[in-house]
Predict the 3D structure of the following.
Amino acid sequence: METRKYRVGPVEKISLETQQFKWSVLSTGNCGILVKPLIGRHEREYHENQRLGLAFAHHVIQQLDGDPSSERLSTPQLLLDAADAVITDPDFMFLLMTTWRYVPEGVEICSVGANTVLVFEQDTIEEVIVPHTALEWLKQQGQSIHAPLFANPVTHMLGSRKSQKSCRIEDIRVALVPLLPTTTIAIIAEQLLVEAIQEQRIPRNELSSFIETWSPPGRMRTTSVLISW
C-alpha cells in the first residue's frame, strides 16, 4: 500500500491487487484515476492491457489537471472523449474507471464499472456511488436478492463512440463529496469487501487496517483508494 500526502492537505492511501490484469492508478495531487482495461479477444495480451489503461489515464489526467480557471468540458464528457481517443478496436476494447478531482467544494468523483464509493463521516457510512453491476441493476428493479450471485458482471463500460456497447454520458455516476477533517472517502473494487465493511460497520479510524488484513479464502489483495484530510 502506498500513501501519498500533499501540501494542500488530502492524504491518499492506494492499494492495488496483486494478480494479473490489475488496475492502474495515476495521481498528481490535484486529481487521480483508477482504471482497468477490458480487451475481449486480446485478454491474454497483458502488455496491451496495460498500454491501453495507461494511455487512457494519461489522457484523462492531462485534461483534469489543467488550469482550473480555464473553461473545459464536464468530467463525464472528458472521459468519453478520452476513451474514444485511445481505443483502437471498438468491438473489443473497453475501460472501467473511477476518477477523483479536488475542487473548492470537496472531491468530485466519477465512475463507470464495478467500483463502489463509500463516504465515512464520523460514525456514519454512506454509499455515494453504487457499481454498474447485474446485482445493482436487479436491486434497482425492486427485486429481492436472497443469495449472492456467483457471477456479477458489469453492465456499463467506457468504449469508443463506434461501439454500441459503450455507456452514454448520463450513465456515468457522479458524486461531489465535501472533504472535512472527519471524512474518509473509500473507492473499492471488490464488492465482497464493501459488504464486509457495511455489515461490520467498520469505524473510519480502523478502515485502512481492515482493508489491509481482509483476505477471505480464494481472494488476493483487493484494489482500493482511501482519501482523507
Q: What stands out?
A: The first strand starts at residue 2 and ends at 5. The CA atoms of residues 193 and 199 lie 10 Å apart.
